[in-house]
Amino acid sequence: MSASTAPPRSRPGSRFRPGSRSPSRSRTRLSWRIRLRRDKSLLLMTVPALLMLVLFNYLPMAGIIVAFEHYDIYQGLIHSDFVGLDEFRQLVANPDFWHAFENTLVISFVQLILYFPIPIALALMVNTVLSPRIRGFIQAVVYLPHFFSYVLVITIFQEFLGGAGVLNVFLNKHGISSWNVMTDPNTFKYLVTAQAVWKEAGWGLIVFLAALAAIDQSLYEAAAVDGAGRWRRMRHITMPGLRGIVVLMLVLRLGNALSVGFEQMLIQRQAVGAGAADVLDTYSYIYGIGGGFGSATTMGADYSYGAAAGLFKAVLSLILILGANRLAHAFGEDGLYRK
Predict the structure, then answer these.
(1) What is the rounded distance in angstroms from the CA atom of residue 188 to the CA atom of residue 204?
(2) What tens digit of pLDDT does each residue of 305-333 get?
(3) In terms of CB atoms within 10 Å, which end of the chain has fewer, N or C?
(4) Exposed, middle or buried: residue 283 (CB in 10 Å: 0-12, 13-18, 19+)?
(5) Do 280 and 258 touch, CB atoms closer than 8 A?
(6) Which of the four pLDDT bands, split at 50, 70 and 90, describes residue 99?
(7) Those residues with Cβ within 8 angstroms of residue 151's Cβ, 6 or more apart along the chain or in another chain
(8) Measured between alpha carbons, how far is 199 from 119 in angstroms, rounded to an integer?
(9) Are the beta carbons of 178 and 168 closer than 8 angstroms?
(10) Which residues are within 8 A (CB) of 26 and not within 5 positions of it... i.e. 6 or more apart?
(11) Which residues, in sequence order, are bridge partners of residue 69?
(12) What is the pLDDT of residue 28?
């Protein structure tokens, strides 16, 4: 037998045996104490975020009991009368609730179709810009509205599309009848979608640009050498590279499908009417806290009814996000977590 084919010999006193796994490749199991000392600085960095999560997301969940009581602010959670599902029965029997639910689904569907693809298209276009300065300028301009409140966003749209806005002044000067988009209930779902696109498309742009930066550039070079054009490189390299983050953002979007902008709807509710602007969030606020429900007993508000509407929305949102995440796993993607 030649030296090149001779089996490895174990040295005296060594635990290594021929055919066994190399000690350098064996995976050593670290105790939780060692891992805690090793990752101490990273764990300390997560403490503020965990405290905020517990304080503002988990502790308030104790208030869910309000949805099952005739809550009275003077008697408190413990001494208020427990009524079980009585508030939910009133909720599903109210046609205004189902109208708000329908508005929520319609607006969410329109935003999913018209808004969701725009940050992806922007990221693909900005990624083709070679000059770093121009790319940074475009990112800054598109991302800036993310820091505006909806009060400012709606004010800007009012100046352009309102009754005395730039659009109607231009139409009147040319003898064309004016059109006040800001008070038209029929186009309200498209108006709020346009406002959301202008405000939040820059945030999605940064997310997808980060995903594009993670794609191995050698793949593009190899494809170019093989004669692949720009469109074929985008189809076979860029889009598969974005698929994971696209699925993740879609799952998150479906999880928030029933939250279509409380502040945005509430500000414009008086202009277009409750029939067009009432969604689940505004319905829960107006009928639960604002005294819109006729059987309110405490200070013109029915907190239990509003809490029941909010809990109904939360349960549906949980079902949506779990269903979307399961669908992502069915297509071979990670979704929110790996299966």
Answers:
(1) 23
(2) 888 988 999 899 889 888 888 888 887 77
(3) N
(4) buried
(5) yes
(6) very high
(7) 263, 267
(8) 11
(9) yes
(10) none
(11) 82
(12) 66
Q: Which two tokens stand for residue 333?
A: 């993607």
Q: Comparing C-alpha atoms, which of 72, 87, 78 is closest to residue 308?
A: 87
Q: What is the Cα–Cα distance from 335 to 322, expressed in whole angstroms?
A: 10
For 155-196, the DSSP string reads HHHHHHHSTTSHHHHHHHHTT-----GGG-GGGHHHHHHHHH
Who contacts 269 (Cβ-Cβ below 8 Å, separation ≥6)?
Answer: 277, 278, 282
Contact 139, 202 (CB under 8 A): yes
Q: What angle in degrees, to the nearest 10, is found between the helix axes of 95-114 and 280-288?
A: 150
Q: What is the pLDDT of residue 291?
A: 66
pLDDT at 113 over 80: yes
Do the strands 69-70 and 81-82 form a parallel or antiparallel pair, or are they unpaired? antiparallel
CA-wise closest residue to 188 among 286, 110, 292: 110
Instruction: Return the CA Rg of the chain.
Output: 28
Show the tokens assigned to 211: 């995903």
**Contact indicator for 297, 56 with CB cutoff of 8 Å:** no
Q: State which amino acid sits at residue 17.
A: R
Q: Is the dihedral of CA 161, 164, 170, 176 positive or negative?
A: positive
DSSP three-state, residue 134: helix
* Spatial separation of the C-alpha atoms in residues 276 and 74, rounded to whole Å: 36
CA distance 60 to 227: 59
